[in-house]
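Zn(2)-C6 fungal-type domain-containing protein, pasting as requested.
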Amino acid sequence: MKPFHADPNSHAFIAVDSSPSPHAGSGSSSGGGGAIIVAAAAAAPSGRRGKKVRTGCITCKSVVDPHLCPMPILIFPPPTARLTQRTLRIRKVKCDETKPACVRCVKTGRKCDGYLPWSSRSARVSVCHVPSPTPELGTAAERHAFEYYRSRSGPLLGRAIDVDFWGGLVLKLSLREPVVRHAMLAMGSLHESLTVMQSEGRDVDRSFAFTEYGKAMVALRRWDPKNSTTAIPLLVCILFICIEYLLEHETASQLHISQGRHILYAMDDTRSPALDMIKQHLVPIYARLSLASFLYSNRPPPIPQHLRTATEMPTHFGSVEEARNLLYHLLDEGLRFKVRATPALYDPRTTAWDMQVLAAEQQRILATLGRWHVAFSMLAATLPPGQPAYPDVQHLLHIFYHSSNIWIKTALEPQQLALDAYMPDFAAIVTHGSAFMNSLASGPATPVFTFETEVLAPVYFTVTKCRHPLLRRAALRLLMREEMRGRREGLWYCAETVVVGKRVIEMEEEVSNALHMDHMYWTSSPTGSHHSHASFDRESRLRVMEAYEGELHVPMTHPPTIVASPLDVMDWSPEHSIAPPGTQPSWNPTFIPKRSRQPRDTTPKPLEVSTHLDDYDTQSLQYESPYGVPEERRIKNAIIGPRQDGGVWVTMFRESRDGKADWDVTREFLKLM
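Structure tokens follow.
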């Protein structure tokens, strides 16, 4: 990886000197040390004889300037500008100016964004100048972090469909809001540190990032809601979540997700420009963060109906963005239903009427999901020319549609044998997962970190919950592809999903040579402890099966779960849906009956493993349900974490075979590949 250097001649470099800029002819001064975005010289006259008409709807007349602006913000061009390769009009047509929506937009299936008020039209500002009341970027480290975020972090944290947020709104607000600027600089610095570590294997000093993160927290505490919009703390909360992801602080990131969702939950329906911005940019992100929350056993507050972009499922979608937003709201609703429904199966107080009510709600959600799928299929077939197709996002939407279908349909099923009926859905996840990864391989750069939970969680879900021997191995191969090496998606680490997925297959199929991993050793300390007091021998590795004295209950209300810090499951409390930083997240497992359990043998046992996927006897595999994996052998849940010494602990739960305990619990330390 080549070292990154901020280019003072780039078109988005911020001039921080209060003295006249050497590029003053390219932009205008802010008069008070404002930030100036350096632009290229004005283009030559277009040769137009008549006066150019500048009225019309926002969609027909708006332009984006990918070189002069670091973000594709819709703007009206200054009077001297012409549409060149640097200024690209969204639509090359004359607007008919029909109110409230122009006919040209409606006929082509576009969403007409309406018209600017005359006061806004008369106050057009040149794209070259961005007024900034905030202090300037005065140090080389600040300028470097800003430029790194603008040119690398912004485009890579999300997909192209999210560039309006990461590469647009965040950059724009950073020029006037200190809290946004400090958080953005911390993100850029941490993202660069992670990239250098992944590509070069060396540590980078993160003191600058920690300093900026601290400044952002101080600025947020001083934030005055009377002088600013509620959108600022909501946006900063998203930036804090990303920072905690980069710092590998999972519990703290969950706390920020919960806080942001609480702010949304408390918002009223007062119309304002800030509310429109929240609905357009921030609510969709918080809806997608639901997936990370539920997979972490957190239960964030629901998003109010009045903050959603649509409350009814349309018969057709106008864009991929609209389809994505509605699917993630449905996913949030489906996972919320699952965590309510599954415990009812084990609660003796649940009546037949309660189950009928849950079944009716399940059918309502599935019917809505079915309507979404029809509308999305029509969009993929009839996408208007010129409308962004985002094929990678379409593959992700297919993946999460099929994942949601499985999660919701099996929410009222007490046995995992019910999953065997959804092999077509699992197969679709593998197919679209492969297509998504192909798009990563063909792209200009494969990011080592993404803010969104994308392909890792559903493909790992397929590895562990699809018992068809060939399908689950195909899913595992996807996670082992070269472009996935070292990949992180929010809370998910690809390397961990690979070793845990392999181990789950081996345990369920109970074939010693079915899937081989590296030999693992765990050497006990003199006290016999296998927790933090144990020592790890890198040359010789053993597995250990640990005993638990006391009550340990498997969380069956969620897909496979991640935990972060040293594990002490017996002390987890069911009273809180999220734990403060430095503690473990909690579940609500009170529906599981308690029985006495016997201590396990804590003597380390050797495990023969290797890295060959195809080293198994095809004659011994079964291709019909239950695929040679009866209910009692199936892993009900696998808790991943904590990480330690180049490996990861995993705790797996199966039904007790001797009937003397609730669960057969196995805890092992797996060496990362």
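Note for the archive: The mean pLDDT is 71.
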